[in-house]
Amino acid sequence: MDVDARHLSGGNLATALRDSRARTLALVGDLTDAQWQPTRQLGINPIAWELAHIAWFAEFWILRGPHQRDGQGFAQARHPPRFAGPDAHFDSARLAHAQRWVENMPTRAELGVMLQGQLDACIDAIPGTHGGATVGTDSATAHPDPLYFHRLALFHEDMHGEAFCWMRAALGYPAPAGVAVPTIAESTLLSVPSGEVRVGYDAEDPGFAFDNECPAHTVRLQDFAVDSAPVSALDFARFVDSGGYDAPQFWPSVAGTWRARSHLVHPQRWRRNTHGAWEMRWFDQWLPLAPDTPAMHINAYEAQAFCLWAGRRLPSAAEWEHAARTLPGFRWGHSVWEWTADAFTPYPGFTPGPYREYSEPWMGGDHRELRGGAFATHARMHNPRYRNFFQPHRCDVFAGFRTVAG
Ligand SMILES: [Fe+2]
Question: pLDDT tens digits, residue range 335-344?
Answer without folding.
Answer: 999 999 999 9
